[in-house]
């Protein structure tokens, strides 16, 4: 029985998607739930699973084409696997070893549109490019690395030849089109800066109390809850207390109205190969430390694997980003619209501090709050950060809500 493979229903906020690549070609047998194609939206990459076991009969849409909800992508024949030629016998161990040592032989029609464009512009043979992507596919980074490595004879000749004069031929540029996700990120960041009156205020936090508490209970916490006790749950809990105290920071602007959200959905920024994503933790005021740590870990893993859903990336009321994981000491994060503020965490560094009249070495972190000055006053922003600082320097406040 023939089945139409259609674009899944896209959320209202997403008008269309781009068919990035086909993972299966005409005549190939597939099993139920196996991914047939990748669709890239402004926010995430969606998979198109096979509804049942069968065979691809016809591809209606070429890779690189924009598609909309319900559009037919392919014709699928249910239960036709028996009509497909059997796969070649598995290679002998020696052949496997030789194949593993050789570059992956990727066919041109299996390349993602952006990768194919790079290969064609450079007039390269895909079969000669070592692949590091999923299922042995060539990535853009593979192409760039391959082009940047000179052939052995050329390298030897370059050593004996005089250095070229400045501006001489041989320098090349790599022109790679933005993905939809990267283009959307750029668009939203510019929109935020052009729409909001953004300002950033800073403070610093002594994390000794949190570190001591974590060191004391981390083993028992992990044993009981099956997840490590990280620092992010402390910051999320501290942010909730500050948001309760200063509800304007948890608000947003809609037209001429200020919408005060009476719930706490906090987005936690996650860096992926495709760009920055901000999965949202729902109702974090009702979650335990263990719940927060588990949810952050799950979101981060699925975001990096491209399995996060659009619904999990929308609707937050406040965001937290941690540049400290990459070594950032200080930054001014950009607000994630339509939210009105974002907390920036940074690297923890030991610094000499005056404590009770004595100089001590303490683990210190600079924190930043970028906010929309149209609705959040400087006094509120400063006191918001002070509330977070007080909560983290005396973690008992988080338990007693004081």
Describe it:
This protein is of the alpha+beta class and 402 residues long. The protein has 3 domains: 2-83, RNA polymerase II/Efflux pump adaptor protein, barrel-sandwich hybrid domain (OB fold (Dihydrolipoamide Acetyltransferase, E2P)), CATH 2.40.50.100; 93-157, no CATH class; 181-400, Chloramphenicol acetyltransferase-like domain (Chloramphenicol Acetyltransferase, 2-Layer Sandwich). It has helices at residues 93-101, 113-122, 140-148, 152-160, 180-195, 208-225, 232-245, 289-304, 378-393, 396-400; strands spanning 2-6, 17-22, 29-30, 35-40, 45-49, 54-59, 66-67, 72-78, 198-206, 251-254, 257-260, 266-268, 270-272, 275-277, 280-281, 318-322, 341-345, 348-355, 358-372. The strands form 5 sheets. Strands 9, 12, 15, 16, 17, 18 and 19 form a 7-stranded mixed beta sheet that branches. A hairpin with a 2-residue loop joins β10 and β11. α7 crosses α8 (289-304) and α7 (232-245) crosses α9 (378-393). The longest helix is centred in the middle third of the chain and has 18 residues, at 208-225. The radius of gyration is 26 Å and the shape is elongated.
């Amino acid at each position: 029985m023939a089945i139409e493979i259609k674009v899944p229903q896209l959320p209202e906020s997403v008008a269309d998607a781009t068919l990035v690549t086909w993972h299966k070609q005409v005549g190939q047998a597939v099993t139920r739930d196996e991914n047939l194609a990748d669709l890239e939206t402004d926010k995430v990459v969606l998979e198109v699973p096979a509804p049942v076991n069968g065979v691809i009969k016809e591809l209606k849409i070429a890779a690189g084409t924009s598609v909309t909800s319900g559009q037919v992508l392919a014709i699928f024949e249910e239960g036709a696997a028996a009509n497909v030629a059997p796969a070649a016998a598995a290679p002998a161990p020696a052949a496997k070893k030789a194949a593993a040592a050789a570059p992956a032989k990727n066919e041109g029609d299996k390349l993602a549109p952006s990768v194919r464009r790079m290969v064609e512009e450079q007039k390269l043979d895909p079969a000669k490019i070592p692949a590091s992507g999923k299922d042995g596919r060539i990535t853009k980074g593979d192409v760039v690395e391959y082009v940047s490595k000179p052939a052995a004879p050329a390298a030897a000749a370059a050593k004996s030849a005089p250095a070229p004069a400045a501006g001489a031929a041989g320098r090349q540029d790599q022109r790679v089109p933005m993905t939809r996700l990267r283009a959307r990120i750029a668009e939203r960041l510019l929109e935020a800066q052009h729409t909001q009156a953004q300002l950033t205020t800073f403070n610093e936090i002594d994390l000794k109390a949190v570190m001591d508490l974590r060191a004391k209970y981390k083993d028992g916490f992990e044993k009981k809850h099956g997840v490590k006790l990280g620092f992010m749950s402390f910051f999320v809990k501290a942010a909730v207390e500050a948001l309760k105290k200063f509800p304007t920071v948890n608000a947003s602007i809609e037209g001429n109205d200020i919408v005060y959200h009476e719930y706490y959905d906090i987005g936690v920024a996650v860096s992926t190969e495709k760009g920055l994503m901000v999965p949202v933790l729902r109702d974090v005021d009702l979650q335990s430390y263990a719940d927060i740590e588990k949810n952050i870990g799950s979101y981060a893993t699925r975001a990096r694997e491209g399995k996060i859903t659009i619904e999990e990336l929308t609707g937050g009321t406040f965001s937290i980003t941690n540049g400290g994981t990459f070594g950032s000491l200080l930054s001014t994060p950009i607000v994630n619209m339509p939210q009105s503020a974002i907390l920036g965490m940074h690297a923890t560094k030991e610094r000499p501090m005056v404590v009770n009249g004595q100089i001590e070495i303490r683990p210190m972190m600079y924190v930043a709050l970028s906010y929309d000055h149209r609705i959040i006053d400087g006094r509120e922003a400063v006191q918001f950060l002070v509330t977070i600082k007080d909560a983290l320097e005396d973690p008992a406040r988080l338990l007693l809500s004081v």
